[in-house]
Amino acid sequence: MSDNRFIQKFIIPCYDTDSQFRLRPSSFMNFAQEIANRHASCLGFGYDDLMRTRTAWVLSRMHIHFDEYPLWRDEVVLKTWHKGQEGLFWLRDFSLETPDGRTLVRATTSWLVLNIDTRHISRETAILDEGTACFENAIGQSCGKLSVPKGAETVPLGEHRVTYSDVDMNSHTNNAMYLQWVTDALGYEVMTVGRLSDIKINFNGETRPGETVTMSRVDAPDGAICVDGLTGDGRSAFRMELLFDKGM
Fold first, then answer.
1. 3-class DSSP state for residue 61?
2. Confidence (pLDDT) at 65
3. What distance in Å separates the CA atoms of residue 59 and residue 203, rounded to the nearest whole number?
4. Whole-prediction pTM
């Protein structure tokens, strides 16, 4: 650890890249989840620590910006740090860099602590030591609540039934899978011709094996693609906003 940042070095593996040899966006989310858990565990508020009080971290909002995509076999340095509390949210940032310090990917996340028995938000304020925080921002502002542009045409994007590969150790959909579903639904040409530079996600509700999530797309005036994911009973599973550098 350095300056309250947790640091991990690794090489981009082939199974986390696309046909352009670029890191898949959903793979970055998986990397971020893992290093966040490792850092939290080192500080005494990881998965096992919270489970003692029947609570768990739940990712609520995320904003990812790709300055540059790392490629297959690139050596990278992933850094994470927590920034303490903002209202009900606990903030954690990430930076993926080259060994010489050039920033490739930046992200900021907002987490809630959930009581796993009642499914209610825990308002416990003594979860972590503020002395272990780092207040540098990877992205200037935390991800806010997303909204769909009014009056815009809604286009169906298909549906996805939650299956074995989608589900994590908590028996609900891994948050990175929502991004994978959306990028798959947008299609091969969209994802390989355009360059996805910015992703904002609101995780609004859990989904479990056997549930079906229906996705729809709205194109915003600024060029962003807004995607809603709804369960069969009309609950919002997620809302997402994606911005491509060109062509989308």
1. strand
2. 98
3. 7
4. 0.94
